[in-house]
Amino acid sequence: MNMRINRVGTSGLEVSELGLGTFEWGHRVSAETAQELVDAYAEAGGTVLELPSFASPAAEVVGSLSLPSEIALIARVGVDVDTRGARLSLGRRTILTQVESLLRRTGRDRLDVLVLEGFDAQVPLAETASALDTVLRSGAVVHVAAAHHTGWQLAVLRAAGIPLVAALSELSLLDRRAESEVLPAAEYLGIGVIAGSALGRGILPGRYATGVPRDSRAAGAGREWVTEKLTAESEQVMAGVTKAAAGLGVSPLDVALAWNRALPVACSLVGPRSVAQLREILDSEFVLEPEIRDALDQISDP
């Protein structure tokens, strides 16, 4: 695959069209496999490594790896875990503490993109903005992005002086909610979009067509996250994807990636658990004809 490099909105940040997610790292992906994934991904021109929530063990795995200098690390903050459980918190103390911890755990001297993991209506925006200004001025963070935000929330952050460069939002043929509000808001604000779960939480390649494989994500810790999308609506979408793939002589994965590739997004995130899965993704360069894309749009219209 000849990986495209895209500019993120109107910022100076550039990223590869595919980003490598680390959702399973530290769980069912060992450090050895993670290194193999990074090596193969970087060799193909990939530049984005995305960490899940702050509490994930993936940070320690990343800290044990040898990462090429061109790899940009995207890390999330804002999920605070204590005796009360997990909750959203974007106060100054949480942001500064979690940034410091992420730097230590990953062995990095900076985080290329710091992602706010939600919109915290309980904390004054001025406090969040002040904490972000501190880490940006210190060089600990280079850019700021926001995940799980609506269009108006993105606008509110910008109005508060938070220099957002990107919005992270789940976006695939199985989840197109971002198209109605996040994409137009991002375009208006001049910020980029990073599409999460580009393969529909692993469903779009067709692995769950006849049930839940024992080695699948839905058979492990990610069960609820995946099965949430295994609905009658997703079955209808998968039927259309499978039919299109069969008629075109390609795989459902090819169709799913081609659909995302045509979106106005800077990067689409994928989370392969093996080098074989990653190779299949990297080898996919299929392009959808407009009439096929229109048909898929109609089938998957939310």
Automatic annotation (TrEMBL):
Organismal lineage: Bacteria, Bacillati, Actinomycetota, Actinomycetes, Micrococcales
Q: Per its UniProt record, what InterPro entries does this chain match?
A: AKR_Detox_Biosynth (IPR050523), NAD(P)_OxRdtase_dom_sf (IPR036812), NADP_OxRdtase_dom (IPR023210)
Transmembrane ranges, per UniProt, are: none
Where is each NADP-dependent oxidoreductase domain found? 17-300
Specify the protein name: Aldo/keto reductase
